[in-house]
Amino acid sequence: MRARRSAVRRSFTFPLRPTRHQEIALAQCLEDHRQLYNAALEHRRTAYRVAGATVRYGEQSAELKHIRADDPEGQGRWSFSSQQATLRRLDKAFAAFFRRVKTGHKPGYPRFKGRGRFDTVTWQKDGDGCRWDSGPHHPTMTFVRLQGIGHVRVHQHRRVLGTVKTISVRRAGHRWFVVLSCDDVPAETLPPTGAMAGIDMGVASLTTTSDGDRLENRRHLAASAARLAVAQRELARAARGSRRHRKVAARLSALHAKVRRQRLDAAHKAALVLIRTYDVIVHEALEVTNMTRRATPQPDGHGGYLPNGAAAKSGLNRSILDAGWGVFLTILSHKAESAGRELIAVNPANTSRTCAPCGHRAKENRLTQAVFRCTACGHVAHADVNAATNILRAGLALRDAARAA
Ligand SMILES: [Zn+2]
User: Fold this and answer.
1) Ligand 1 mean position to 199 CA, how many Å?
2) For residue 356, how far is its CA from the centre of ligand 1 (angstroms)?
3) Confidence of residue 99 (pLDDT cuts 50, 70, 90)
4) CA count, 13 A, side-chain hemisphere, 298
5) What spacing in Å lies between the alpha carbon of 372 and ligand 1's midpoint?
6) What separation in Å is there between the alpha carbon of 381 and the centre of ligand 1?
7) DSSP labels, 175-214
8) Roughly what angle, to the nearest 10 degrees, separates helices 80-102 and 20-51?
9) CA 265 → CA 66, 125, 331, distances in Å?
């Protein structure tokens, strides 16, 4: 068993309160980093197409010096470190691409970032082109200094713990945030409860535990997803460059921001309940291929919702609900680490079609999205609770095997 660490890494997010001037500079900073990203991508594509050559991060990073010298009023304004972070981000996108090619998937080639598709700039080290709490002598206000932008006011609504490692700035619609990634944050270990649970991640409820608790009904998220789909169709119909197009695009981006907030909020709430209640939590290992195993929700013919609360309309709805699982698991793992709880991931194959009491495995056991009825022993349960029970059992078996080894 791994030793419990007393310190963890975690991030803190605070709203920024830039002046009008700083807001313009922030937007320029993002735009220049976006263009750097796209130029570096173009460089890699051309090198590959023309010469079959692979360009690496080190090579592109070495060119930054010249790019900055040639454009002192543009790229030269920003921090070398944040530009390196942007090139690293591209490098990661390529690494993920090649990894998926190797495993026989058909991944999409890394794509150019359009306007509004590049919303984060990261400074790799506090003190290098950026400084957290740059005005520590101010009695009430907190500032972050960003190279080329200045001392920007921060709405710091809680204490920052540990040591600030990296600083990121993120745009969400019209709002700006600073994200601090901190090391050595003291863990707030919770007292043991003696309880264990498996959790099933679903469409109608974010999670269902093997104890039968359904956490975070997703009706609100599904409703936002439906509105998002409507706005997207509207945008597709509006003429590019028209006033209407701009208006719908603005509404769309506000809706996207709302979905992200709702998803985060729901994930935090559900994770908190689980962490407080259980010492050991077993969940499904999340892989894209697993997401299609669930019964596809059936449209009711009126563009409405199914009784299980899942929006029935489009693949977009599904993908929005599915994306929530990744966010949830990330938050859950951070909280688990911080609280000293044990988290186990298991392969979800067959957990939804196997009878928890008798082990009989058949597709026919799963009557509907919600109902499980075993064709061998007659056991009837909510399908998600049955799955969660199987997940718990698989997790405990894994754990026993690991201990025996
Ligand atoms: Zn059975």
Assistant:
1) 20
2) 7
3) confident
4) 5
5) 10
6) 10
7) EEEEEEEEEEEEP-PPPP---EEEEEE-SSEEEEETTS-E
8) 40
9) 44, 29, 10
d(CA 172, CA 157): 18
**Which tens digits make up the pLDDT trace of 309-339?**
343 444 656 666 666 888 899 899 989 988 8
Distance 359 CA to ligand 1 centre (A): 6
Long-range Cβ pairs for the range 90-96 (8 Å, 24+): 90/37, 90/40, 90/41, 90/44, 90/57, 90/60, 91/56, 91/57, 91/60, 94/44
Calculate how far, in angstroms, residue 210's C-alpha sits from the geometric centre of ligand 1. 16
378 alpha carbon – ligand 1 mean position (Å):
6
The pair of structure tokens assigned to 283 is: 């969940």
Residue whose C-alpha is closest to residue 393's, from 357, 353, 369, 362: 357
Residue with tokens 């976006």: 34
- Measured from the Cβ of residue 205, the count of other Cβ atoms closer than 10 Å reads 22
Return the H-helix or E-strand segment holding 8: strand 7-17
Q: How far apart are the CA of 242 and the centre of ligand 1, in A? A: 60
Q: Which tokens in the block code for residue 324?
A: 């929530």
The first and second tokens of residue 104, run together, are 């026989």
In this structure, are residues 371 and 382 in contact, taking their beta carbons and an 8 Å threshold? yes
The string of pLDDT tens digits covering residues 169-209 is 999 888 999 999 999 988 878 889 999 999 999 877 889 99
Residue 387 CA, ligand 1 centroid: distance in Å: 13
Dist. CA 401 → ligand 1 center (Å)? 25
CA dihedral 113, 261, 143, 65 (to 10 degrees): -20
Tokens of 200: 């099933």
